[in-house]
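Bumping with the actual sequence this time:
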Amino acid sequence: MTIKPRSAGRQLLIAVPLALILSLGLISSASAAPQKIPIWRNGTDQLAYGKAISASGESVWGLNLHWTSGGPTLHFGMQCETLSASGVVENSAYGKPGTLSNPKGTFKGCALTESPTKECTVPKEIPVTFQTTTLSNAVYSQGGMNLKGNLEFKTTCPEGYWPYTWKVSIDAQGYESGFVGEQIFPEETSKVTVSNAYPDATIEFDMGLQSATLKNEEGRISIGIHEIAEITYGHHWYTGGARYGEAPKTLVPAGTPLAITKGSASATFESTQVGLLMKINCSGSVEGSVENPVGGGDGTSNITYNFSSCAVVLPAGSGCTIEGGAIKTGALPGLISDPLAERPLLKFSPSSGTVIATFNLTGCTPAELNGLYKMTGSFYVYPQLNSGLLPGSWSIPISKNPKSGGPLRIRNQGASASGEVTAETSSGLLVTMG
C-alpha cells in the first residue's frame, strides 16, 4: 500500500477585513471590533440561516493511525484511502456558529502499513461515528471543528497472534484545507486513545462534504468566517424605498413576515434545444413574503413566480405551444448571494431538490421539441433597480443569469433569464431591499 503524504499545512483563509466592511457602510466606524463567527458556506454562498442541508462526500486522502502494543518496539500502523462521510450542516441563527449534526462515515480502503507480523490484516472498511459538533475558530482562526468519535476493528494475524479488537476514541480539531469543502484533522491537534495500547497513539485524517442535492462545485460545503459587530448590519427589507435616502422608506419590523400579494412579473428565457435557439416570453404575478430576521443580518424572502401567460417565440414558425400557457414555480427561498456587496443580490433556489418549474410543449416542429421540460438550478434577482430610485421594482439581470455558464438550466441545457418584477403588499406598499 502506498504511503500518502500528510496534508497538514494546507489552509484556506476566509476572512474579511474590517476596513472593507467600513468602506461599504455596513457598520459604523464607531462600533466595537467585529466578532468572527465560523459559518458554513455552500459553494461561494453563505448557507442561509435556519436552512439545514444534508451533506455527504469522499475525502481526498483518508486516515493515518499509529499505535504501540505488547511492548515498546511492537508498532502498528494503519492507513485508509478515504473517509466516506455524511451529516447535516446548518447555520442556525445570525451571530451563532454553524453546526454539524449526526456525522458518521466509513473509512474505506484500509490496510496495515506496519505490524509485528507482516501478514496481519484489518477490514477494508471500518465504520466511524462522530458526535454532533459546532464550528469554532478557537484553535484555527479561519474556522474549524472539533470531531469526537469512535471506531472499532479487529486485526487478524497468522497463527493466532494479535487477535485483538481495537477500540479507538478520537478527539480531533480540524480546519478548512486548500481544497474547498475539505477539512483536515492533523496529528498536531488530534488526540486518540487505542484500547490495549500505549498512550502514544497518533491519528490524522480528513473529511469532505458536499450538498446531497447539488453534485457540482457549487455544492461543496466549506467553512467561512462571518464578521459581525455589536450593532446589526446587512441588507434589509423596506416599504416605500431603499436605505440610501432617495425615497421615503419604512423598515419592515424584524421577525414579522410581510406578505407580497399584488406583485407582477415578466421574464424571457432562452436556451438551445436540439440545436435550435428557443425563446420563451412570460408575464404574470408574484406572491410570497419577505422578512428581516430578529437580531440582525440580511433579510430573507420566499417567493412564488406565477407566469400565467407564456409563449414560445423562437424557433420562429415551430408551432410550439406551452400546455396550459403557464409556467409556475414553487415557493422559492431568495437569499442574499454576497452579504458584503453594496447592492443586494438575491439567489432564488428550490428549498429541496433542483427543480424550479416544469412545463410541456406540444405541436412543435421538429417533433423532438415536444415533451416535458424541467427548469432547474437557480436564478438571481436584484430586489431594487439601480440604487432604489423606483421602489418596489426588482430586476432579473441577464448579466447574472447568462445562457452560458449561468446557474439556470432548461431540459439540461444552459438557459438565460431576464426580466422585471414589482413587489407590492395588499395595501399597496411597495417592497424594496436596501
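The C-alpha cells above came from a reply further down the thread. The chain has one helix and 33 strands.
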